[in-house]
From TrEMBL:
Presence of the UniProt keyword Transferase in the record: yes
Molecular functions per Gene Ontology: protein N-terminal-serine acetyltransferase activity; protein-N-terminal-alanine acetyltransferase activity
Protein name: GNAT family N-acetyltransferase
Chain ranges of the N-acetyltransferase domain: 11-167
Keywords tagged on the record: Transferase
Tree of life domain: Bacteria
């Protein structure tokens, strides 16, 4: 599928481009992003380049991973990364991270809602899942505001960047 651009009242969601490498690199220096999301630690500039130039465009080309950067309309500042990833037929996972300085202003709910609305309208989706490491209360708050039902906690679901197993929360949002 060709990448899309979405707009909300305060944001433009668009594919990341080569000019966004520095912003992605800077954002991913945040300890919370490095702990709660699957990014390499340390996160190097080469990691940002590979994602922006290769991995994220490939997701669109293969119809498996629809990743958009959210940028503020008033300043063009990067707010975060928002994606829908195909899990199985009709099931997608919503994933996101937000730039530390942009958190707590409602941008993640706004961006994720726009992406999910696009997914409901465009993709063959009957369920969107959300997963977060237990303790990531910011991610959980966004998911709950979007309408996800937290369905449970999976014990020791994954190994985090600290090398230890952690519990994960899982939620679902079924077709409205």
């Amino acid at each position: 599928m060709d990448p899309v651009t979405l707009e909300t009242g305060r944001l433009v969601l668009r594919p990341f481009g080569p000019g966004d490498v520095d912003a992605v690199y800077d954002a991913c220096q945040d300890e919370d992003i490095q702990f709660y999301t699957p990014v390499p630690v340390p996160f190097r500039r080469q990691d940002a380049e590979k994602r922006v130039r290769e991995e994220w465009p490939e997701g669109w080309a293969t119809d498996k991973d629809y990743i958009l950067g959210a940028f503020r309309k008033d300043s063009a500042a990067l707010v975060g990364s928002y994606c829908l990833t195909k899990v199985s037929q009709g099931v997608y996972e919503l994933g996101y991270w937000a730039v530390k300085a942009q958190r707590g202003q409602g941008y993640s709910v706004e961006a994720a809602r726009a992406l999910c609305d696009w997914g409901w309208a465009t993709l063959d989706v009957h369920r969107i899942e959300w997963w977060a490491m237990a303790g990531n209360t910011g991610s959980r708050a966004v998911a709950e505001k979007l309408g996800f039902t937290v369905e449970g906690t999976l014990r020791n679901r994954g190994i985090a960047n600290d090398g230890k197993p952690h519990d994960w929360w899982v939620g679902g949002w079924v077709r409205p």
